[in-house]
Automatic annotation (TrEMBL):
This is Response regulator receiver domain-containing protein. GO terms for biological process: phosphorelay signal transduction system. Pfam families: Response_reg. PROSITE patterns: RESPONSE_REGULATORY. Keywords: Phosphoprotein. The keyword Phosphoprotein applies. The modification 4-aspartylphosphate is found at D54. It comes from Pedobacter suwonensis. Residues 5-119 form the Response regulatory domain. Coiled coil: none annotated. The keyword Phosphoprotein applies. InterPro entries: Bact_response_regulator, CheY-like_superfamily, Sig_transdc_resp-reg_receiver. Gene3D superfamilies: 3.40.50.2300.
């Protein structure tokens, strides 16, 4: 598989660390952002192939981040996996324009399968 650029936006440093470790291990370049207000600028700068986005974050929710991204033509094709422990997270993620939803706590193999499926 070609090396891809994956951005992770989550306010939980532990989740970022785990995702960075497994995605880096399989050969991807990983950029992490722990502040949802900074993710738009980071996407504009880094041009990731995939965004892994937490749904519930302080200041600006992942749902709002994703809705804002989908309004801009430059980001309409960006692949997005939303992760959340929310009961209604799958519906919220779908309504906001996510390509896929993964419930927390997640299985690392599920994350890798989803990433591979969206990037191939």
């Amino acid at each position: 598989m070609d090396k891809k650029k994956i951005m992770i936006c989550d306010d939980d440093e532990g989740i970022i660390d785990v995702l960075e470790m497994i995605l880096d291990e399989v050969g991807h370049t990983v950029i992490s952002v722990n502040d949802s207000l900074k993710v738009q600028a980071a996407i504009d700068k880094e041009q990731p192939d995939l965004l892994i986005l937490d749904l519930w974050m302080p200041r600006l929710s992942g749902q709002e981040v994703l809705k804002h991204l989908r309004k801009h033509s430059a980001h309409q094709q960006l692949k997005v996996i939303v992760i959340s422990a929310s009961r209604d997270g799958e519906q919220v993620a779908s309504d906001a324009g996510a390509n896929q939803f993964i419930a927390k706590p997640f299985d690392l193999n599920n994350i890798l399968e989803s990433v591979n499926a969206l990037l191939n």
